[in-house]
Write a structure and sequence with these properties.
Layout (H helix, E strand, L loop, with lengths): L4 E4 H22 L8 H10 L8 H20 L4 H24 L7 H22 L8 H12 L4 H24 L7 H24 E4 L10
Parallel strand pairs: 1-2
Helix pairs in contact: 1-4, 1-5, 2-3, 2-7, 3-4, 3-6, 5-8, 6-7
Length: about 230
């Protein structure tokens, strides 16, 4: 293994989900704009929570992703086990996100310097978390599964399908922002920065992980996840 250490895929899954939730909480705290992927769920959370105080960002995430999975099943004309497992991932992420929001919300953020620090931290650890999730066999959140399944169904390059999905998500975020609040909320210049550098950062961290670790299964679950 050329001196590389073993990192189990199951641990990579847990690390990825937890760190992704923390990253999202940091970016929300910075208020420079969420990533285009989570922006629609974030805007729904902001609007609904005005009338339903107990409605959280995490709840909005897994409900929105459930809708995506239902839409995916309709488009594919079938329901796969991975769709249900993807919702489990979304649910776990949502629960951890709410906990992370509570903790990060206690941190001071009374200057532009703090906001920049939170945004950069969120951006970097978000890329790290996704790099970990790329090295596990557990079904990803609905966002990634939606892109993967449609790419296979319509025989399109996954990068092209991802670009189309990201553009649609960004447009939806802008529309929801203007309809709900009459201005840009949640979709700001930070959203553009995320779109510009996130893919590059994920690639760099993925290569770094692969240079240090060999990812292996600790449990015989890979075939059951399909």
């Amino acid at each position: 293994m050329n001196g590389k250490r073993v990192f189990y895929c199951e641990i990579a899954y847990v690390v990825g989900i937890v760190v992704l939730a923390i990253a999202t909480a940091f970016m929300e705290k910075a208020d420079f704009g969420m990533s285009m992927v989570v922006a629609p769920a974030y805007l729904i959370y902001l609007k609904v929570s005005q009338f339903v105080p107990f409605f959280t960002f995490g709840m909005s995430e897994y409900i929105f992703q459930a809708v995506l999975l239902i839409l995916l099943a309709l488009v594919m004309h079938k329901v796969k086990r991975s769709y249900f497992l993807s919702f489990v991932t979304a649910f776990l992420y949502g629960v951890i996100l709410d906990a992370a929001m509570g903790v990060v919300g206690l941190l001071p953020c009374d200057s532009i310097a703090w906001r920049i620090a939170f945004f950069v931290t969120g951006l970097v650890i978000c890329a790290i978390s996704i790099a970990f999730l790329f090295h596990t066999y557990f079904p990803p959140e609905a966002y990634e599964l939606f892109v993967k399944e449609l790419s296979e169904k319509f025989n399109m390059e996954i990068s092209k399908t991802k670009t189309i999905y990201d553009c649609c998500s960004c447009v939806l975020g802008v529309v929801l922002s203007l309809v709900f609040f009459g201005t840009f909320v949640g979709v700001k210049f930070g959203t553009v920065i995320c779109a510009a550098v996130n893919g590059w950062l994920i690639g760099r961290f993925s290569r770094l992980l692969e240079s240090k670790f060999v990812f292996k299964d600790a449990l015989p679950l890979r075939e059951k996840m399909k």
